[in-house]
Amino acid sequence: MSDANVYKPSVMRIEKITEEAPGVKTFRLLFNDPEEGRRFSFKAGQFGEYSVFGEGECTFCIASSPTREGYIECTFRQAGRVTSALFELEEGDTIGFRGPYGNTFPIEEWKGKNLLFIAGGIALPPMRCLIWNCLDRRDWFRDVTILYGARTVADLVYKRELEEWAARPDVKIVTTVDPGGETPEWKGKVGFVPTVLEGMAPSSENTIAIVCGPPIMIKFTFIALDKAGFKPDAIFTTLENRMKCGIGKCGRCNVGPVFVCKDGPVFTYAQIKDLPAEY
Amino acid sequence: MEIERRLLKKEALAGLVEKINAAGRKVHAPVCEGARVEFAPIDSIAEADLGYVQTTQSAKNLLFPRVERILSFKRRGGAMETADPDLSALPETVVLGMHPCDAAAIGSLGAIFTWDTQDAFFKARLEKLTVVGLSCAAGDEYCFCASVGLGPGSTEGSDILLTRLASGDFLAEIVTAKGKALVELAPELFLPAPAGADKDSALARIEKSFTREEAGERAKARFDDDALWDGQALRCLGCGACAYVCPTCACFDIQDEGTTSRGVRLRCWDSCGFPAFTIHTSGHNPREEQGARWRQRLMHKFSYMPERQDVFGCVGCGRCSRACPVDMNIKEHLIDLLEAKS
């Protein structure tokens, strides 16, 4: 066969499992073949197809930073057939991985700017890759602000990292939970992300905003950012259309003339405004 | 290469099939199966039905099988081993009697599988396929090849195109090097073509109702006209028959079969007309309404594919209209789209 089988996954071993929230786990993965591991590289924003052999494949971003070499991490919520099978796995078990696929956040173009990260719920993982990538290159940027919200306190993922970021003098972090999702001990905000964002009155001056979250959150966050004076090409997000192949063939993530898997998943709000609202 | 014209006597077709079989190649041709005509392997020309108007299924199965194994896996000890299917074992195949619409569809399918990342499965099958097309002597009310830049005698996609002349003999146009190689299997059968061999008068008359370019532009301009799309799709059942019979529809799903110790990974036909095609795990569906899914089908074929892969995704074969259980007719819907008030 002259061309390689592009659907053939690498076999990876689960080195470590972290329970992030009810139904949410992070896997740290190592390539079974160390040579494959050495050849592998990716950039912030890219994703992969993870599989449990016999159950199927599913799509998640790579949630670890490319600056942390030697492994990749993915964070997922148990929901369907494949994620339920993944959820049952233990440290030492093997899974399949194809990737990296898709485009990347243009981090180098953001040098000298303020960064405003806005994430909701289980959409922190793609953002976490980018946040660590930027914090590992902290001197490239000016102010770094993170706004993260979830439905309830229990649903907040990466709790240890949220504390770690909160403890850093060079990061400003605001966490919020939806009304009714707070606990008596909760010290963060209570309110939906777009509302809390408006209350923060962020300056759009020399600032890049990166938004990841469920479609409804993204929609209202764009409106809030627009009100705050952010230009559409200064707002970035990742689209999460359903995918199968990851390489622009299967047709699933086709939105307008765009394949989210090839042309995205990273888009600016300016690009998204030109697309049909099919995301 | 320049097209070479030869004459293939009507009785020589049987010999050609024998020679191809003798060379170890498989021959697929339209075969009458009760009320339907379908492409199937044949051993002799007597099995073929070359007077058909259209097969129910296209021949895309030969290049993009309905279900195709893309991986096998087996747990050995603690380790998972994966293996590629052996594509070198694919047989050399000749499809004989495919109409020009289907031959042209190969280019559209190929554009999807090779526009960016190269799909080894499609390419391996294409490499082993030779297309002996057959011009259409008759069409029906569903045919609209002339409106999508093709015609009943188009050579596009054929390695050899046969046209049945008034005498019953075939004019053979040798279009590609693959076609030439096939002729080499039985050169004595391909006689010099008579100077007066009139191909045009042997072709079906297919009305040109619009151009594919104007259909694409109009679909794009009417994109936000929900009433138009919802109206056209009101009776759509979302059954996906249109995509399954379509010679250019290439959307697929990837599914595993077997156990977590041993099994196969399969690529299976899918359809953008199914509600589950785009649904997120959260339940959110980017194309919630059937009208949006119908619009996607037309936009993909007439606007997105030309924009991204420089080919159109419709060859006017009319299969989707014939197969539709609620009589949605793509040609009529395209005409309505062109006439819709802006």
Structure description:
The complex is a heterodimer of chains A (279) and B (342). Chain A has eight helices and 15 strands. Chain B folds into two domains: 177 residues, no CATH class; 128 residues, no CATH class. Helix content of chain B is 29%, strand content 22%. Chain B is built from ten helices and twelve strands. In chain B, strands 3-2-6-7-8-9-1-10 form an eight-stranded mixed β-sheet. Chain B has a four-stranded antiparallel β-sheet with strand order 5-4-12-11, with no helix packed on it. In chain B, helix 5 crosses helix 10 and helix 6 packs across helix 8. The model of chain B has no long low-confidence stretch (mean pLDDT 96). Chains A and B meet through strand 13 of A and strand 4, strand 5, helix 3, strand 11 and strand 12 of B.
List the helices and strands and how they pair.
The complex is a heterodimer of chains A (279) and B (342).
Chain A: E1 10-21, E2 24-31, H1 34-39, E3 47-52, E4 56-61, E5 72-77, H2 81-87, E6 94-101, E7 114-120, H3 124-135, E8 144-150, H4 159-167, E9 172-177, E10 189-190, H5 193-200, E11 207-212, H6 215-227, E12 235-238, E13 254-255, E14 258-259, H7 260-263, E15 266-268, H8 269-273
Parallel strand pairs in A: 7-8, 7-11, 8-9, 9-10, 11-12
Antiparallel strand pairs in A: 1-2, 1-6, 2-5, 3-4, 3-6, 12-15, 13-14
Chain B: E1 4-8, H1 12-22, E2 26-33, E3 36-42, E4 67-76, E5 79-83, E6 93-98, H2 100-114, H3 120-127, E7 129-134, E8 160-164, E9 170-174, H4 177-183, E10 190-192, H5 212-221, H6 226-233, H7 241-245, E11 252-258, E12 262-269, H8 290-309, H9 319-323, H10 330-339
Parallel strand pairs in B: 2-6, 6-7, 7-8
Antiparallel strand pairs in B: 1-9, 1-10, 2-3, 4-5, 4-12, 8-9, 11-12
